[in-house]
Design a protein that fits this description.
- There is one protein chain.
- This protein is an alpha/beta fold.
- The protein has 2 domains: 200 residues, Rossmann fold; 53 residues.
- The protein contains 10 helices and 7 strands.
- Strands 2-1-4-5-6-3-7 form a 7-stranded mixed beta sheet.
- It is elongated, with a radius of gyration of 22 Å.
- The relative contact order is 0.13.
Length: 278
């Protein structure tokens, strides 16, 4: 039987892992943050689409690109929350903007952080703080349930505590919810808390810590068809316009929704039927 002190030491090490080591940031332009043990894994090829194929989000595109260029050039920039309709290109825009910045020969890194790993974000910030590189910290599909305390960890990224957020780190998040929490959760706080206004403010104020709020809304039928036509032109899929329109409208009718995601799913099926590899 092992020494009890050794078992206690092992348990403490699992609870408080050793500080990670900074990888060679020149090895890649994108990384994924993992815990147990803490590490930044390089991503050789980022899954993204060209910015020209993102239709109907021109204002959000221009605003996020300008903010990211400022940051990449060492100028002041805001954390950004991309919120709104599902499937309308929120996460695709973040990755496309990163590619557009790299195309201007500005050395910007992107680090993906999973929502469930938010409690470790302080350790990640300490790791990035000492680097000379500049990082976009990206959390996709960010939201919190009524019993979720991870939102408190997020404040370390947005406000940085006593040390402040590292100058070389900016935070971008996507969410279907403007306030990151379900409306019924906010209403329940108003009705059941001892001091309703304070309870609500603590949670709603989290989204207020983002300097940029970029809204994404359901697309029109014309925008939906424009997305598909753009995919066809980019990948060389030639289809009669009337046939393409009829099939695309039938596809979205069976899905009960129109979005960039639905447009891409239809195009994937179309390309497969025409023998075109993507």
């Amino acid at each position: 039987m092992s020494d009890p002190l050794e078992r206690i030491a092992a348990a403490l090490e699992r609870m408080s892992p050793a500080p990670g080591t900074m990888p060679d940031v020149e090895a890649a332009d994108a990384f994924v943050w993992h815990v147990e043990p803490d590490r930044l894994d390089p991503v050789g090829k980022v899954n993204r689409v060209d910015m020209s194929l993102l239709v109907g989000i021109d204002r959000s595109r221009d605003t996020l690109l300008a903010n990211t260029l400022q940051f990449a050039r060492g100028l002041p920039a805001n954390n950004a929350l991309l919120w709104g309709a599902r499937g309308m290109g929120k996460s695709s825009l973040v990755k496309a903007v990163h590619a557009a910045v790299l195309a201007q020969d500005l050395p910007l890194k992107i680090v993906e952080l999973h929502r469930e790993d938010l409690p470790s974000v302080g350790r990640l910030l300490n790791l990035l703080r000492d680097s000379r590189a500049r990082f976009v910290l990206f959390c996709d599909d960010l939201s919190f349930s009524h019993d979720d305390q991870h939102y408190k960890s997020l404040k370390a990224v947005l406000d940085g505590g006593i040390e402040g957020r590292p100058d070389n780190v900016i935070f971008y998040a996507t969410s279907n919810r403007r306030h990151l929490m379900p409306r019924d959760m906010i209403e329940n706080e108003r009705s059941s808390a001892i001091n309703p206004s304070e309870a609500v403010e603590e949670k709603v104020s989290l989204s207020d810590r983002f300097g940029l709020w970029l809204g994404f809304h359901p697309c029109s039928q014309d925008e939906y068809l424009e997305m598909i036509q753009g995919y066809c032109a980019a990948h060389g899929v030639k289809v009669d316009e009337a046939t393409l329109r009829a099939e695309a409208i039938e596809w979205q009718a069976t899905r009960g929704a129109r979005s960039g995601r639905v447009a891409w799913q239809f195009f994937t099926d179309l390309a497969g039927r025409h023998g075109v590899s993507l």
